[in-house]
Amino acid sequence: MTDSLLTLNAGSSSIKVALFDAAGDGAASLPAARWSGQADGLGAGLKARLRVRDAQGQTLHDAALDGAQASHQGALAALLEWHAQQADGRRIAAVGHRIVHGGADFVAPVRIDASVLDALTKLEPLAPLHQPHNLAGVRAAMAAFEGVPQVACFDTAFHAVQPEVNRRFALPRALHDAGVRRYGFHGLSYESIVAQFAGIAPELAQRRVIVAHLGNGASMCGIAQGRSVATTMTFSPLDGLTMGTRCGHIDAAVVLYLMRSHGMSADKVEALLFRESGLLGISGVSSDMRVLEASAEPAAADAIGHFAEQVVQHMGSLAAALRGVDAIVFTGGIGENAAPLRERILEDCEWLGVNVDAAANRSGAARLTTAESPVSAWVLRTDEEAVIARHTANVLRAAG
Fold this sequence. Notes:
- Helix content is 38%, strand content 20%.
- By secondary structure, the chain is an alpha/beta fold.
- Strands 5-4-3-2-1-6-8-7 form an 8-stranded mixed beta sheet, sandwiched between helices.
- It is globular, with a radius of gyration of 21 Å.
- The protein starts with a strand and ends with a helix.
């Protein structure tokens, strides 16, 4: 029987899964999935569906999820039932999980036990849109695979090597020591880009690179020699860039004002900043960039303009943190697919030394700038699942 690794990335209304061979040599290159699947629309009132595709993108399974199946645990059970029917002699040897927040203590992948799960549960208030669903996925997998190792892979871990000056708020030292610090997120995505970029442009990948992970959740990271130097998200996944429903950077006094002058509770402020702001809040139309680009509403254009301007401004900030920049890489759902937005951003970064190649950008080429451009720009598809699989295999290998 062949051993396989399952990766699990559980969100608020979706689960992403992928299957990898367990065998490997621990190389830095990313493994390739045998198949990947996604269950969308999980939750009351939504039309849930499970889709599975092979490594070539061909559909292997496409089915509606009804009743109890339209939950995280039900969707995982439906996926496992489909997997069992394939009769390919593959046994799940371990499950690797994306965990958004590792706090101050978890700076490397770790096997999950009761104490780890308890510690990660205490971090839920720091990432309320993500952590509870990540951990629901862990519990569902534990129930489905009794005794099988479960490995936590953290979005925050990639940034743990940042210079101390970039990890502090200007708050009393005791609060920093208590965990009130800049953590950074999307680390698994950044790891994926570092590995892929090293294969495409190995010399350039070791220099100063700004990666823009632009999606419903959005952040940017300044990377030197493959290591995080500074990033836009800080204590929680709320900070930094404008996002789909999250406000991004905001003066902390706004929160005090809303609570004191508008009588808003902490729960209402949290809902406002995490779920009702960002592109949705500015536009009043949608949190989806595709919908906004197709809309004739002036407020939709305002939202797109705000998003683009925030990316450009943070580009300058990260270039300062790196003391210069040699390459820019776009990734994430918006970064990979919104060519007009990429062009707009790159044109506004001409002062950094970017000479955009509009034809290449629109054609789907990996390189988006001219050959003569002092700073090159690229677009790469992130592969967080491959990074999770690599980490999971390494944890198993280290355990013997």
